[in-house]
Amino acid sequence: MRDVLIGIDAGTSVIKSIAFNFAGRQLGAHAFPNSYATTPGAGAEQDMARTWADTAATLRGLAETVPGLADRVAAIAVTGQGDGTWLIDARGDPVGPAFLWLDARAAAFVDRVRAGDADAGRYALTGSGLAACQQGPQLDWIKRNQPERIAAAAHAFHCKDWLYFNLTGEIATDPSEGCFTFGDFRARAYHDAVIDTLGLSDEKRLLPQIVEGTRESAPLSASAAAATGLPAGTPVVLGYVDVACTALGAGVYEPGATPGVTIVGSTGMHMRYCRDADDVTLNADRTGYTMCMPIPGGYAQMQSNMASTLNIDWLLDMASGLLATQGVERSRRDLIASLDGWVAQAGPANLLFQPYISEAGERGPFIDADARASFLGLSTRHGFADLVRGVFEGLAFAARDCYVATGAIPDEIRLTGGAARSRVLRGILSAATGAPVRTSAREEAGAAGAAMMAAVNIGVYDTMDACVAEWVTPLLGAAEPPDAELAARYDRVFPAYVTARDAMRPVWKAFAATKGHG
After folding, report:
1. 151 by DSSP, 3-state: which?
2. Helices (H), 306-370
3. Residue 338, pLDDT score
4. What are phi and psi for residue 137, nearest 5 degrees?
5. Calpha distance 166→223 (Å, rounded)
6. Which residues of 29-48 are buried (b: 16+ CB within 10 A; e: fewer)?
7. What is the rounded distance in angstroms from the CA atom of residue 17 to the CA atom of residue 30?
8. b/e code 59-98 from CB counts within 10 Å (16+ = b)
9. What is the pLDDT at residue 8?
10. Rounded Cα–Cα distance for residues 225 and 220 (Å)
């Protein structure tokens, strides 16, 4: 009996394959840690062949977890980390390593395009601000600095597109990634004016066809079947980008409701659902993303912090390193378990933290490759607990900053991502935004969102509405309202957060100019 759907989620940190039954309950999981390399000049690259090998290994491992998986799998769906540039040649082999979304080498190109008159038209079509993480700017950088790679390339993929190709042999991308980089979000298609604005008319040949995964699939190839242990011919669905699939699995879409979703992961994604193109708010700063969703006429409008839990990781790494110099070893798990306690020791809003810790700078709700993190208001009375709380509050203020830029803070925010398990972080974010928060019992929202697309594709559900009613709504927890006193405190502090962010921009630029000059 074919009664299992598999969702693959190839993220920046982990590659996962998750098995679900037709009612959306998780049956098993297998994961491999992912890795990438940084290069001089703000580069971030990933081995493409290894990424496919690791993905295939997660599928083989999943078969060891779920009895009879090969005889039970009805469909496979794949999603993965967004942005980036994954080039292959005419034989289907990688043309060098992939550029990741963390790669900031194209920052100067972004500044030039954004300063030009044509960028307003590009933004009006894509609904998305230009950033160095995107494939368009990265293709320009490769063309200028590694022209032999462009000459050798036949197709430009994103991560999930590369895996879909290895699973099926098909050259394709989806509406979410195709349109926010190169297209018209209203038409869900490429647009020549956008491609021309980016100066990539000659590279248009690299762009794959755009396919809709809720309607179209391709069979698992014989070679992929041999690599994964799953039967050849199994329908494979190309999911939307991981952010869109995670939002779907976490509850950004629910008929009759207007929630938002915040993903507290390596990056911070803050999005609200738009029921049609007229509901999309395009801001004057030309930032944020408008992503097609696998729902007829629906979009997710989002702002994204380049770094979210990366700020917490930095703090924990620093603590671990200091303890190690004193001969004290603490596991990562123990340090994470201590976070809520440290936050509880500190008073609210004693410090302002700007959570721009990524080497790639910031992309939401403003774009600045030179942006960097900082604490404001430090004095001798502050201790480590104040720093921890300051980081948590900085992430919450960044979320509010992003939601304001999308046009409105949602009536309710649904949290997902590993850090959403922190009760203290949930309370701080709720108070900082003034919105109730809910979390889902769904641990693997990205893989679930991809599998939901497969469920609609093969006819388990006639509509995504019906799928959401069974896969998403029953798993949502109770709403946690904001603490009124804390919310009032954060309302007074938030304007200072925004003022500090704006005031620091010339400082970041001046400091960046000193790099490399001794």
Report:
1. helix
2. 309-325, 332-345
3. 81
4. -60, -35
5. 9
6. bbbbebebeeeeebbbbbbb
7. 6
8. bebbbeebeebeebbbbbbbbbbbbbbbbbeeeeebbbbb
9. 98
10. 6
All residues at 6 or more sequence positions from 422 whose CB lies less than 8 Å from its CB, including other chains? 339, 340
The pLDDT score that the predictor gives to residue 308 is 83
SS3 content of the chain, % helix, strand, coil (to 5): 45, 20, 35
- In single-letter form, the type of residue at position 259 comes to P
How many angstroms separate the CA atoms of 314 and 115, rounded?
Answer: 33
Tell me if 272 sits within 8 A of 245, measured CB to CB: no
Q: What is the mean pLDDT of each run of 10 residues along the chain (518 residues)?
A: 95 94 96 92 94 97 96 98 96 97 91 93 95 94 97 98 98 95 95 97 97 97 98 98 92 87 84 90 88 93 85 84 77 78 88 89 84 93 90 93 89 82 89 93 92 98 96 92 96 95 93 72
Residue 208, both tokens: 């794959």
For tokens 């798993």, name the residue: 475
Strand order in the sheet with 235-238: 26-33, 14-21, 4-10, 73-80, 235-238, 218-219
The whole-angstrom separation of Cα 399 and Cα 304 is: 9
Give how far Cα 76 sits from Cα of 6, 70, 73, 374, Å.
5, 12, 8, 43
How many residues are present in the chain?
A: 518
Please tell me what DSSP assigns to residue 183: E
Q: Measured between alpha carbons, how far is 238 from 281 in angstroms, rounded to an integer? A: 28
- DSSP structural state of residue 377: S
- Ramachandran category for residue 42: left, alpha or beta (phi over 0 → left; psi -120 to 50 → alpha): left
Closest residue by Cα to residue 165 from 98, 119, 223, 97: 223
d(CA 208, CA 226): 26
Is the Cβ–Cβ distance between 406 and 270 less than 8 Å? yes
For the four alpha carbons of 468, 474, 475 and 477, in that order, the dihedral sign comes to positive
The C-alpha atoms of residue 73 and residue 16 are separated, in whole angstroms, by 16
Q: Provide the CA 422 distance to its chain's centre, in angstroms.
A: 20
Torsional class of 407: left (φ above 0), alpha (ψ -120 to 50), beta (otherwise): left
pTM of the model: 0.87
For residue 177 the two structure tokens come to: 């990634």
End-to-end Cα spacing for the chain: 67
Tokens encoding 236? 């494979």
